[in-house]
Structure prediction request, 90 residues.
Amino acid sequence: MAANNRSEIRYLTPPTVDVKKKKYCRFKKNGIKFIDYKDPEFLKKFLNEQGKILPRRITGTSLKFQHRISQAVKRARHLALLPYMTDLMK
Prediction:
């Protein structure tokens, strides 16, 4: 009876193995060399809802371009193109 119960075990969802996509730097891949601080719509992609800069581990950008993004965001904030903090930006 115990061996029969083991064969009748059914799962609600089949067990799957998550395959994570490899992160890549979109700037290196597309050959972008300059990040414009005067383009707030582009810079919003690297900010969360509160206006904080997203880290490299989430966006996948390289260290060099992460520094450039943070510098561009800080310059845009200084010129009031982007807010320093907000309730819901997106």
Notes: Residues 24 and 30 are 11 Å apart (CA to CA). The chain has one domain: 21-90.
